[in-house]
Amino acid sequence: MSLPVMETGEAQQKSAAPRRESRRWVVSALFGVGALLAGTAITGAVLLRDATPDPLTAYALLMLTAVAVGMAVLWGVINHSVLRAGKRLTAEARLIAHGKAGAHIPVEHYGDLAPIAGAVNELADKLAAARLDIDRAVAESTAETERQKGRLATILHDLHEGVLVCNLQHQILLYNQTVLNLLHLSGDLGLGRSFLHFVLPEPIHHTLERLTLRVREGRHHNHAHGATAQFVGSTTDGRILLEGRMSVILQPGEADALPVITGYVVTLSDVTRELAALGQRDALLRETTEGFRRPIANMRALLETMIATPELSPQERSAFEAAMLESCATLTSGVERVTAEYRSVMTGSWPMSDIHSNNLLNLVRHRVRDDARYTVTLTGLPQWSHCDSFSVVVLIDHLIQRIHEQMGITAFDLSAEHEDQWVYIDITWRGAPAASGMVDRWLDEPLPDALGGLTVDDVLQHHRSILWCETLRGGARLRVPLPPALSPPTAHRQTARSAARPEFFDFTLLHQPLVTSELGRTPLEALHYVVFDTETTGLSPSTGDEIIQIAAVRLVNSRILTGETFNQLINPGCKIPPETVPIHHITDAMVADKPAIDAVLPQFRAFISGAVLVAHNAAFDLKFLKMKEKAAGVQFDSPVLDTMLLSRMLQGDDGDHTLDGIAQRLGIDVVDRHTALGDSLVTAAVFLRMLAMLRERNIHTLDDAIRGANILVELAARERVL
Predict the structure, then answer these.
(1) Which of 36, 152, 330, 475 is found 20 to 30 A from 681 (Cα to Cα)?
(2) Catalytic residue, candidates 98, 462, 463, 674
(3) What is the per-residue pLDDT across 194-215, written as a single tens digit (0 to 9) for each?
(4) What percent of the chain has pLDDT over 90?
């Protein structure tokens, strides 16, 4: 924070350094009090020997007073020279335990306790040396990992497919440049942010559920695709269609237990043009085939009429009948051929894979809401089919809902049956069958969750399928034929992999939660932070001072991600006071062509999404932000931690709690001080050191930290009132 008033406060704090104390204060006080008592005893005995009415009583009162005064003086000296210095020494010792090499207690400030302060400094030097040895060993042991990381990063950079690594909460752990190009993003995705912020979540959830079931049942060992599955998705705005392949990351289980899924790897490719072309061909061929059917019907009707007309001569009738029948047969053959080719093209182009019907139907059942007024029961023997599982799941779910809504059916059986060259997905219920007209109307209905506005008929044609309803004994069923699996497990078996997939990167984020309603109980080390700072034209937003710069840096997994920063100059709409320029070094010319605050704050709000905010003297920055919320159309309601309050919580009110003072005691080099980004980086480094100190004080969760800070704020408010 770069503020003139704060500069003055820091100077005052530095000028108030403790004076050097004499090491003979306590000894002198003891001898002085003894001399006082002795002198008082002798003098009192001489002066009060003739006192009336009782010289002994007067002498006792005098000595009692002298002893009380002597003890008060002695206590004051001991409290000033020993007890207060000991308390301050304790706080300093606790602080330097978390500092870098060279962080020392000033021995000359502690008088009679100077030997203890010197011993603490010796211990600090030994602790720093031990840390250096540990750091050296860690650096040597991680050097090879970093080299392999560099090689892997180079390979990923050169891949034509986008690659992401995510944990089970869909937080992004790793990505390559191709992903940014595929999603048409100009900046970074942001490590720790949710992948589902950028792509449609349903296909991702669906594919992960498929693979989870496969691993849970142990089928990934002999499955044709192992722990991998294909899917089709899109960006959240629907402009880009993506073909993806998901592979789950497996961690070996204990003993004979199944492996545990800790995350997944996704490869993406842009298939927008290909699928758009398929859509165009779809519309064209549909129009063509529908256009052929009417002429055929007319020709057949004309032929039937001519056959029924007896006035024609036998020769004319014979020739006319032969020509019409030949034309009709040719046209019919052409329509069937074009339709077959169209379906072949659509089926071959649409991404599909083999799937077990149990998994497919389980996914349908999982889509049934808890408050639904119908039930779905899985029946029959499982089968293997070849399909786009997401589209089929959405299709079956949509058909069940339609039957329930239009026919009042409340209980369904769902099964798969292999007959001839098809695997039939059957929706069975007790009651009358659906009328053919009703089923035909369903064909043109768009599927609510399907990609690209696909209709029921589109999904059926992609699978060369049709739809019909038929009567059964005691009920009815709706049948959806699907192609059988191309390579079912019975055709070939794969041996289990002998070793787990090697890991080249630090995947500690795999175990971190997304920001949820349990945020307050989340351990501080597991949270995602954004450390921020502002530069302003002055100290009072309520009287017209404005923000001229906002900067922030992301903290994930106790690491400062310097590659993921927010740094924006802002045009305040007024002149920057000349007296503040030497502090923040921002001039009118530098902000002349920059955006206004109401354009910058929505971008900043998006950057901090899902994070806990951290700042030094945060109340000042938040005041400026809060006053601009309405104009910018945003709300800053994220939890906030203040390093100044945390410093007071850890060390007490004594000491220097400025950012410079804390950084100096912790041995943190201050770079680019009094710039928004520089202060954010320093604050981030200070905050990371404080996390370990907070843990030692039994402050483990976000609620613990906020509760402690609130107590300090309340005490300060009461002191101001008094």
Answers:
(1) 152
(2) 674
(3) 899 889 999 999 999 999 998 9
(4) 24
